[in-house]
Amino acid sequence: MSWSQSLSPYILHPDQHEKDLVVYYDDIVTIIHDGFGKSTYHLLILPRDSKLTKKHPTTGVTAHIKNLLQTYVDWCTNYIYDHFTGRYEILPSNDNLSMSSKEDFIEQFILVGVHSVPSMNNLHIHVLTRDFHSLKLKNKKHYNSFNTKFFVQWDQLPLHFKPDKHEMENVIIKKSDLICCYCNKNFSNKFSQLKKHLGEEFDSHFKLNSSDANVSDNT
Amino acid sequence: MSWSQSLSPYILHPDQHEKDLVVYYDDIVTIIHDGFGKSTYHLLILPRDSKLTKKHPTTGVTAHIKNLLQTYVDWCTNYIYDHFTGRYEILPSNDNLSMSSKEDFIEQFILVGVHSVPSMNNLHIHVLTRDFHSLKLKNKKHYNSFNTKFFVQWDQLPLHFKPDKHEMENVIIKKSDLICCYCNKNFSNKFSQLKKHLGEEFDSHFKLNSSDANVSDNT
DNA sequence: TATTCCGATAGTGAC
DNA sequence: GTCACTATCGGAATGAG
């Protein structure tokens, strides 16, 4: 089961990794790019405290811990806002997605939260754009783990119970229809069609800045 | 639904097909090689009577009809015995499969019967070797349609009821384990392993005669 | 219990 | 809620004028 420990090195030795991967660290946290990011930007906040890192995220992130970590959450949303808007132009759109101000962008287009049944043993908080436009998004599990109640948002923490593992894995993740997070279109279990659609949604909302035009996209 | 009518031309115009496919016909029946035969030899007997051809096989093949068709069944088993033994040498074996006499061969190695839920609309009787060693045998449905009670043997006909379609399709065919018809080994739902095993069983029981050695096998 | 194509689903093994 | 591989399972179209 060593894969479930693969976040450990980052909290133990944040200095021994490439700068491209570790974007920030101090005594309290390490912040990294998710090695298999499911959106254009996908960061993980890893508290370094040896007791906290072993706790279950839905109950371990208490009000006190939230207060301690809030500055790092804000650091991440700012990081993502700056980098995303530096790289992409936000196109005018007809839908209900308004990203004209920084506050709107962060509110509507950045997700912060934890998985109700984590697979990595070290407590980690996801901060990611809500586009799911990534080569690493390959199946229903990947998508529904961020787009159902399997994903517990930062503002909802802490829960006063641990979600039922079996229900989350075998009902919520597997049985929930695939719903587009931009337009709510229902793709049932047609992952390939959702994936294609997400690419179209992305292209209708964002356009690579010319200075980045040589960078291949994530389709 | 035209595919379900694809046997019709053989009863309407048996003379307009290749001799390789239509092996016999008269006013009563047409006998053809199954276009997608699931065993080394796989014949279909198609009664040409316009009323009989529309009947359900499990109830339509009455004692009277069986008597009328028995001679064609015998013709088929003889045809298969002659051709199979002309092409293959029967090797001595340690298992309970004794094919030393023609009667034993026909009794133990030739199946005669009908499907309890046919997909082709024209009534047809299967006569086939019990090896299931064919490129066209590609999935559990193919195998279990001849190796469960979905297959109603000639001696059991007629039934006094039509088998329940839903039970046959969704329980008997899909849920029954794959059991080797030579040695009863259970392959659960591992079709690929069963298929490989059937090839080994075939090779342990039969050997191509040298005069046919240039003919590729069915693996 | 037609075939074929495509894709969703499921189990495994990995250091 | 790792990936990558393999295989099982599941739906949809299938033609003709």
Describe this structure in words.
- 2 copies of one chain form a homodimer.
- Chain A is of the alpha+beta class and 219 residues long.
- Chain A has a single domain (2-209), classed as HIT family, subunit A, CATH 3.30.428.10.
- Chain A is 35% helix and 16% strand.
- A 6-stranded antiparallel sheet of chain A has the order 1-2-3-6-5-7.
- In chain A, a hairpin with a 3-residue loop joins strand 1 and strand 2.
- The mean pLDDT of chain A is 92.
- Chain B binds a DNA duplex (15 and 17 nucleotides) through helix 5 and helix 6.
Detail the topology: elements first, then pairings:
Two copies of one chain form a homodimer.
Chain A lengths: L7 H5 L9 E4 L3 E5 L8 E6 L9 H4 L2 H25 E3 L11 H8 E6 L9 E5 L10 H8 L3 E3 L11 H11 L15 H15 E3 L11
Antiparallel strand pairs in A: 1-2, 2-3, 3-6, 4-8, 5-6, 5-7
Chain B binds a DNA duplex (15 and 17 nucleotides) through helix 5 and helix 6.
- Overall domain count of chain A: 1
Q: Could you spell the SSE succession of chain A in H and E letters?
A: HEEEHHEHEEHEHHE
Parts with pLDDT < 50 across at least 5 consecutive residues of chain A? none
| Strands of chain A, count | 8
Taking strands numbered 1, 2, ... along the chain, how are they ordered across the largest sheet of chain A? 1-2-3-6-5-7
How does CATH name the architecture of chain A?
Answer: 2-Layer Sandwich
**CATH superfamily grouping of chain A:** HIT-like
What number is the mean pLDDT of chain A?
92
Largest sheet entry of chain A: 6 strands, antiparallel
Percent of residues in helices of chain A: 25-40%
* Helix/strand/pairing category of chain A: alpha+beta
**CATH topology type of chain A:** HIT family, subunit A
As an assembly, this protein is homodimer
Principal-axis shape of chain A: globular
Number of helices of chain A: 7
CATH class of chain A: Alpha Beta
